[in-house]
Amino acid sequence: MQDTSYDAIVVGSGISGGWAAKELTEKGLRVLLLERGRNVEHIKDYVNATKAPWQYPHRGGRTRAMEEAYPVLKRDYPLNEKNLEFWASDKDNPYTEVKRFDWFRGYQVGGKSLMWGRQSYRWSEFDFEANARDGIATDWPIRYADLAPWYDHIEPHAGISGSLEGLPQLPDGKFQPAMPLNCGEELVAGRLSKLYDGRRRIIPGRVANLTRELTGRSACQYRDACWLGCPYGAYFSTQSSTLPAAAKTGRLTLKPFAIVTEVLYDRDRKRATGVRVLDAVSDQTTDYSARVVFLCASTLNSTWLLMRSATDVWPGGLGSSSGELGHNLMDHHFRVGAGGKLEGMDDRYYNGRRPTGFYIPRYRNLFGDKRAYLRGFGYQGSAGRQGWSRAVAELGVGAAFKDSLSQPGDWSIGATAFGEMLPNHANRISLDETKRDKWGLPVLKIDCATGENERSMRKDMMTDMADMLEQCGAKGVYTYDNEYFPGMGIHEMGTARMGRDPKTSVLNAHNQVWDALNVFVTDGSCMASAACQNPSLTYMALTARAADFAVRELNRRNI
Amino acid sequence: MAAHENAGDFTPGMIDRREAILRVTALLGGVALVGGSALLTGCRDEDRAVTGALFTAEDIAFLDEVAETILPATSTPGAKAAKTGAFMALMVTDSYSPRDQAVFREGMRKLDEASRKAHTVSFMTATPRQRLALLEAVDREQKAESDARRDEKEERQRAEAALSDQRQEAAPGADVGAAAAITEDLPPHYFRMMKELALLGYFTSEIGYTQALRYEESPGRFDPCVPYRPGEKAWAPHA
After folding, report:
1. What is the pTM of this model?
2. From A59, A63, A352, residue closest to B221, measured CB to CB
3. What pLDDT score was predicted for residue B239?
4. Do B15 and A388 touch (CB under 8 A)?
5. Is the pLDDT of residue A383 over 90?
6. Is residue B100 part of a domain?
7. How close does chain B come to A192, measured CA to CA in Å?
8. Fold of A1-161+215-332+421-449+492-559
9. Are the beta carbons of A53 and B231 separated by less than 8 Å?
């Protein structure tokens, strides 16, 4: 008979949930960590991690059968033969699209931390004050100074490699040594910095891959096979980093196949008492109690859970009293940029497969620059020598053609912009009572679109890169806009925003639900704006900060 | 789509998984390329016919010779040694839409017919030199057609982009169907399919990775800038 009473319950075991479990157990709490999907054991369950690339029947590609089984996942790169077992089933987990929304999910222990892109950037003061300055949505209840110590706290344990640049819009952190730029990137970086007096610069991508070993984790082996799961534990995932730390305390209970159907709420005490869990295998329902509940189920899923909870008090669910629950859904818009070729470097190459590239921090609408749109974007890109694929569109058959492809091709460089999407009340999720999933839960309905600000920004996102490449001497510069639909960024944020006023926000400055102060939401749902930096590092810092606050409040008997 | 293919071209040291995968899927999926529209829109109902075993052992021998002519044994083994014909047959069977399967099958017939016309012998009985001459001619034909297609498509996309700006201004936010409403592409030239699959099959085979290219399972280091001398092999990617 499993214990049903804990100090804390954490719902979701991805990046945020793993951090919640680690911090709460290390501070002495007995924690139940609930995960809706299966367990994935570190290393042992990375079934393809050491498989040779030629051992996949379709060499990693997709089949018609896969496309039929994954009608959403097939819309972009995630549908593939190499790590399909890490992506959630579209068939088992339907949702309703009022407008197209690509929802790519990871339902297993570790969540999307197993296959995330690992780009890790701090937010800056500019980002936290942006809503107030622009009069958009509502003000963040915190500033950079509130979060800086928590970035300091999480970075050394997560293991972020990066360079120190002294940029106010992209604060430095407690980094391991950077993975360096290659010589093609160095060439362009030097020219760009000179042209723009350092205001625009190419820096090594800051990435959650180790360049120095940590306890139980090796430094990166430069295989560039991260998304299969790393047998060296060299990139941050729940499995490599936070779960072992939480387990080591002896106070963690991990329960896979546990779908939380609702947060149990005591209307008299105005507190959550625990959660109701549906066992995904046995279909049995069990109630678990705890003094504090952390929702880290991922952006849309934490809000979905709130919407199903305390509906006898608020028809819209727990946290809906402000009218903002489910609203202000955001993502990063991208898939637009430019590329070109670099000359005079044919006697240069590199060894090893670096699992990151370069980053160009935001420069638009900062330091006196003023555009017709609000906010800005950063670029992620890389330079390298072309491989055999360069021949696909070219003329050629026969011996000389084949042998030429055994050698590296021209140096090329390219970058994709990741742009900030504004919070908009009209971009929302709600319950679709007409459709239920296989566990009988009403599915989510998603209604989200980009607006004029994003469309206007995309023009700069495309032409700025082309201009910079041409100014830096690249040849054959081309631009592209491969079209973007919300969700494709897999940076979904918002729907339970933090704020200063319970009338206009769902969570307070410590990620507590205004309507139930012992319920914390610390995943991407809490975001009041999106900035343009990859958000996961900020979820880690917010979670650690909220966990510290929760334990202090418990000790003070305030919650 | 030229931009897409180019985007897949900044080969090694990719920024993150997105571009790495973009690059791979740009190739794999004859799918992402050849079956492009089926990928975006899903197969139509009439396309769902059960295909079963599409290729016989003779067909695979034929495809082996096509691939070997494109990528012959030189100082490294050729496409036939890498069993490229079987790979091509598998990809066409499992990944191509029924429409593209038909184009591919018909292409095999056309190729044989062209051999008989040019050299009075079947493709299988033609000499390596005759096969090469034939494939060079067919390659020029497919290149001209692919380039024309690309130009047309870019023109159409420019027109559609302009139209979509107008639509968005009229009613912000495209509806779910908008992406699927991309004009149905014409099937690619059969030899473009064959060449793509031959290149993919060969360079991602064990022979391709370990003999045509250089592969280290676990490099253990990253050297950002080293001298390169002509003739040295390219590094193969991983995931």
Report:
1. 0.92
2. A352
3. 60
4. no
5. yes
6. yes
7. 19
8. FAD/NAD(P)-binding domain (3.50.50)
9. no
In chain B, residues with a C-beta closer than 8 Å to the C-beta of A391 are: 199
CA torsion A336-A340-A346-A347 (nearest 10°) is: -50
Does a structural domain hold residue B174? Answer: no
Q: Is residue B215 part of a domain?
A: no
Residue A121, helix vs strand vs coil: coil
DSSP for A458-489 reads HHHHHHHHHHHHHHTT-EEEEEEE----TTTT
Residue of B nearest to A78 (CA): B21
Positions in chain B short of pLDDT 50: 1-17, 19-51, 165-184
Chain B residues 46-65 within an 8 A CB cutoff of chain A: none
Which residue in this structure is represented by tokens 């570790």? A110
What is the C-alpha to C-alpha distance for residues A488 and A491, in angstroms, rounded to an integer?
8
Q: Measured between alpha carbons, how far is B74 from A171 in angstroms, rounded to an integer?
A: 54
Please indicate, yes or no, if residue B227 is contained in any of the structural domains.
no
Q: Which of the 8 DSSP states describes residue B25?
A: H
Amino acid at site A526 = C
**What gap in Å lies between CA A546 and CA A520, rounded to an integer?**
7
Give the count of alpha carbons within 13 A of A542, CB side only: 35
Determine the distance in angstroms separating the CA of A246 from the nearest CA of chain B, rounded to an integer.
Answer: 28
The minimal CB distance from B179 to the residues A225, A481, A485 is found for A485
Which residue has tokens 């024309």? B148
Q: How is residue A496 annotated by DSSP?
A: S
- Host domain of residue B154: 2-167+184-210
User: How far does Cα A26 stand from its chain's mean position?
Assistant: 24
Burial (Cβ within 10 Å: 0-12, 13-18, ≥19) of residue A51: middle
This complex has an ipTM of: 0.94
Q: Which amino acid is at A335?
A: R
d(CA B70, CA A71): 35
**What's the pLDDT tens digit per position in A203-225?**
999 999 999 999 999 999 999 99
The count of domains in chain B is 1
Instruction: Show the tokens assigned to B66.
Output: 């096509």
Confirm if A526 and A514 have CB atoms less than 8 A apart. no
A513 DSSP β-pair partners:
A507, A516
Q: What is the pLDDT of residue B162?
A: 66
Per residue in A267-306, pLDDT (tens digit) is 999 999 999 999 999 999 999 999 999 999 999 999 999 9
> What's the gap in Å between the CA of A373 and the closest CA on chain B?
16
Locate CATH 3.50.50.60 in chain A.
1-161+215-332+421-449+492-559
CA distance A108 to A113: 10
